[in-house]
Amino acid sequence: MLCKRNTDEDRSVAERVQQLISDVRSHGDQALFELTLRFDKAALDRLYLDKADLEELAAAIGDAEKEALNVACENIRKFHQSQIRDEQQVETTPGVTCWRENRPIERVGLYIPGGTAVLPSTFLMVGVPARLAGCKEIVVCTPPQADGKINGYIAYCAVLLQIDRVYLVGGAQAIAAMAFGTETIPKADKIFGPGNQYVTKAKTMILSATGTAIDMPAGPSEVLVIADETSRPDFLAADLLAQAEHGIDSQSILVSTSSDIIDRTIEAIYTQLRELPRAAIAGKAIENSYAVKVDTLEQAMTFSNTYAPEHLILETDLWQELIGKVSNAGSVFLGHLSPESVGDYASGTNHTLPTSGFARAYSGVSVDSFVKKITFQHISPAGIRHLGPAVEVLAELEGLQAHKNAVSIRLKD
Amino acid sequence: MLCKRNTDEDRSVAERVQQLISDVRSHGDQALFELTLRFDKAALDRLYLDKADLEELAAAIGDAEKEALNVACENIRKFHQSQIRDEQQVETTPGVTCWRENRPIERVGLYIPGGTAVLPSTFLMVGVPARLAGCKEIVVCTPPQADGKINGYIAYCAVLLQIDRVYLVGGAQAIAAMAFGTETIPKADKIFGPGNQYVTKAKTMILSATGTAIDMPAGPSEVLVIADETSRPDFLAADLLAQAEHGIDSQSILVSTSSDIIDRTIEAIYTQLRELPRAAIAGKAIENSYAVKVDTLEQAMTFSNTYAPEHLILETDLWQELIGKVSNAGSVFLGHLSPESVGDYASGTNHTLPTSGFARAYSGVSVDSFVKKITFQHISPAGIRHLGPAVEVLAELEGLQAHKNAVSIRLKD
């Protein structure tokens, strides 16, 4: 029961999203202008900002912020670069050579949320691997402010990523625009990025209806922290609150072998909470959260693997012994000095991660998410002689005579 | 227009599948017994065959067939084994170390079609990578024959794969059973395998409704063959017919720089067609297929990349020059002696591939499909000192004070 997430289907969301998708599909740009006026209060003449607009907005941000975004971008680049590796050729039978090659997905769509939270970090997390993969066309949508502009940090990320155009569309209408294409917005082969429940619903609906690929299904963010008597209650409390401030539906779970640590952490949570500007949100999320007392770290890991958390922090001296026991998690933070915030922004790992238990089957976003691995095979005269007869038998037993004939005609030759 | 696939949404299919899913979800095993009686005409006492049953059925098949299945299994194993590689650790900032580790998806469901086509090769194509990945639980569903048994070749594959139980359920009801679990059939985290339009619809519906992962959306099989004056019309015809015999909705496309080769290939198709047991099916599929005359191989590749074929055969002396130009395809066959049949069965590459243009965004099945890549990060005292200040700036600019505090509290320490 404790491992259940709140995933009640809200039918009214599905109906409204279906309507938005139909509008965009039928009326293209016109629908986007109208919806942007309705939802974002922005009366646009043009659905995008161009390079000059982006550079102007980017130039206005502070140097410390530029530097911090540069550091994040560079670390994300270094880690994701390491994911690109040539595949080896394998001769499975003498004369039969097989291998895979990476090819970028040509047209990708990136959704960057706006509204109450401005998330330049998300832009880097999807933009950097898209660039490294070599995607030809990177379509970026984000909701405009009421003045028709976007936040300077987002603009700065566009400049860092050498993206010369940002489309001013948000919500489910942005997802629909990238799935079907409009007069202005190019159609994408795969759509990435987080968003509110309308955005998420739109992504799963277009996946189901059109097969447009998406990064992954998404739910509220969550962290599971494993602690023992070596843990620091003030660090634990800070990590649990960092997750809680995301939204009232966030979940922060503490699993500890020590009751004393649990008690002191709860105390520290309420002390730290008072200082937070987003205390109202974090406080609500903490109400939905819980602490679990276990007898051993082994039990803690079993609980964690059943829960399959998006973020897992192993805040114990024994973190090295636990690595091998992690079977379901999105991203894992090791030891007392590895808070989730560092991975959220700048360690280099991706923060687009599977929530709601999807870590049982899904990985976080990586360069792999932006490429296809295409298999190739070459068969020599010796290869067809060696392997052909087995293929003839197999085609025959599956009753596929034409499959057999494609080999026989070559063997006869 | 030529690149469009027939993907008309059949609403009656969706409604019937929805009903089947609800039945299985509400009534579990009881629904499966009833549906199996209705659709497969099998009155079962038990929903599965056990190890002894499988070994008995497997023992009855011929030695040549056993040997051919062994060869296929071994080549698939060799090629997929090469896909498993350790990831490297990256120090993105001094003291900040990041890496990925593979973890198997713990419970996978494999659907093996039955009915008119018995496809042991499909069982190997999903079973071998599941075993290599180290999945703990491999749930296999296949429809029973009317006598409550299954084909001996399927049973032999189960023995080869050391799978001790095969569930006797087919169609959309099998997908629902694996998605939700029943008294007898375990719930799976991800479901693999091809099937008819009911199976395919059930997979996309459970993906959308529950987030249960699936291998990929699936449509009718297809091949695109690129030819020039160096090609052999009899080989081309055999390859086009091998695809055509799969089903009346299969597509076989010939793209050639030579009109003469096109004419002679069409002639060869009608000659070879006469000899085929599945001539009625292949003939229908050929009616839906077409040949395209292009001026250059470059144009042929552009057409192919727009079509994004499941299978691509480069049947020209110049195949080596074309490899780099392939951007969208599932699996590629190089030269005159590499018919698709060899990859369908035994070269070692996977035959579970993206159809209907999904090759623009999806890869075929591989060991990657059966694992998650979990990111890990460890931050040392030096690491938090180096990287912490940038994270503080980024958290501040996103307005997430608790994220900042999780770093500040450690820096102060």
Task: Please describe what this structure looks like.
Chain A is α/β, with parallel strands linked by helices and 413 residues long. The first copy, chain A, is globular and about 85 Å long. In chain A, helix 3 crosses helix 5 (152-160) and helix 6 (171-180) packs parallel to helix 7 (197-210). The model of chain A has no long low-confidence stretch (mean pLDDT 95). In chain A, the strands form four sheets. A five-stranded parallel sheet of chain A has the order 11-10-9-12-13, with helices on both faces. Chain A has a four-stranded parallel sheet with strand order 5-4-7-8, sandwiched between helices. Chain A has a three-stranded antiparallel sheet with strand order 2-3-14. Chain A has helices at residues 11-40, 51-59, 63-81, 120-133, 152-160, 171-180, 197-210, 233-244, 259-273, 279-287, 297-307, 319-322, 340-345, 381-397, 401-411, and strands spanning 48-49, 90-93, 96-104, 107-111, 137-141, 166-167, 190-192, 213-214, 222-227, 251-256, 290-293, 311-315, 331-334, 371-379. In chain A, strand 12, helix 12 and strand 13 form a beta-alpha-beta unit. Chains A and B meet through helix 3, strand 2, strand 3, helix 7 and helix 8 of A and helix 3, strand 2, strand 3, helix 7 and helix 8 of B.
